[in-house]
Amino acid sequence: MILVLAGGVGGARLAMGLARVLSPGKAAFVVNTGDDFEHLGLTICPDLDTVLYTLAGVHNPATGWGRRDETWSALDTLAELGGETWFRLGDRDLALHLLRTQALRARAPLSLVTRMLARRLGVRHAILPMSDTPVRTRVLTDRGELAFQDYFVRLRCRPRVRGFRFAGIARAQIPARLAALLASPRLRAVVIAPSNPYVSVAPILRVPAIKRWFACRRVPVIAVSPIVGGAALKGPAAKMMRELGAQASALGVARHYRTTVDGWVIDRADATCAPRIAALGHAVCVTDTVMSDARKSEHLAGEIIRFVHLLSRGRASF
Predict the structure, then answer these.
(1) What CATH number does the domain containing 77 carry?
(2) How high is the pLDDT of residue 294?
(3) What are the CB-based long-range contacts (under 8 Å, 24+) for 247-254?
(4) Which of 7, 80, 274, 314 has a CA-to-CA distance to 40 between 20 and 30 Å?
């Protein structure tokens, strides 16, 4: 069993590759819920939905988020009536939010609702929210403290970042199924997807039960760098790193995670960073990490699995 910590498009693309090469009993995906928010009376879970749509094969490949062949009648009508349209909700997407919000108001836990939606979309692999209780990422900026979606979507990441706060993190409760997986003797490794380290991965690592597991873990943790050639392939990770005084590079990401990670998977474009990452005490795998299509996602998944086997046998790098 491999447990994958994921968020955003990079996390969804790696999830797709791993789901293609590992059976449902051998991979599960723990997804960030820090960017969840309430909009137009609905509970929106962007990262959960991106992973869900991608594994269901209904995602929009052009954007990486949302649904393929989407229509926008509801949003167009909302605009005509003077409603808020800065967060784009397509008609098919809207149906999922309506159903999820209804279930949550009936007091169903988010993990159960997610499992129901995954089953109805034909997804067989486990998709688990990092917490069944709300956690909300707040971005500290030169314009004050902002809700994550205000910063990310409405303001298009323009404010300068000064830090982050995860409201509700101290009370975050992991799903029972995730607790069982973390305690399972079948767990071989944890993989951190190439997701934003500050707003996609950090909330997951700060959940108390997950934080405790990392403190006494007995299996390797492998991370895929979200930075390739000094840039983030998707999202503001590199911009955030620079504004927080960190080096926007594969080496900078490795320094950020420190001892949280045992092995790093970096792109060939960053091969010169490998010796310096290794000097930090990490094993390093250099391969192609840009998942521009399903075939490349599957190839990267195969490389990660091979890396897991090598680290489990105690080999330092390859």
Answers:
(1) 3.40.50.10680
(2) 93
(3) 249/273, 250/225, 250/277, 251/276, 251/277, 252/227, 253/197, 253/223, 253/225, 253/226, 253/227, 254/225, 254/280, 254/282
(4) 7
Whether the CB-CB separation of 77 and 55 falls below 8 Å is answered with: no
Which parts of the chain have pLDDT scores under 70? Answer: 314-318
The answer to whether the beta carbons of residues 2 and 17 sit under 8 Å apart is no
Give the tokens for residue 132.
């069944």
**169-184 confidence digits (pLDDT tens):** 999 999 999 999 999 9
Q: What is the DSSP letter of 153?
A: I
In a domain, 295, yes or no: yes
- Angstrom distance (rounded) from CA 208 to CA 111: 17
What is the bridge-based pairing of β-strands 144-147 and 136-141?
antiparallel
The residue range of the domain holding 243 is 2-312
Look at residues 193, 146, 158, 220 and name the one whose alpha carbon lies nearest to residue 301: 193
| Eight-state DSSP code of residue 233 | S
The β-bridge partners of 37 are 44
- Report the C-alpha gap between 51 and 264 in whole angstroms: 22
Distance CA 185, CA 1 (A): 9
Residue 317 lies in a domain: no
What's the total number of domains in the chain? Answer: 1
Counting runs of H as helices and runs of E as strands, what totals does the chain give? 13, 14
Question: 180 vs 109, 128, 161, 202, 213, CA distance in Å?
Answer: 17, 12, 36, 22, 12
C-alpha dihedral (103, 105, 109, 110), degrees to nearest 10: 70
Under DSSP, is residue 209 helix (H, G, I), strand (E, B) or coil? helix
139 DSSP β-pair partners: 146, 164
Residue 318 lies in a domain: no
The reply to whether 24 falls in a domain is yes
H or E element that contains 145: strand 144-147
**Alpha carbon distance 148, 141 (integer Å):** 11
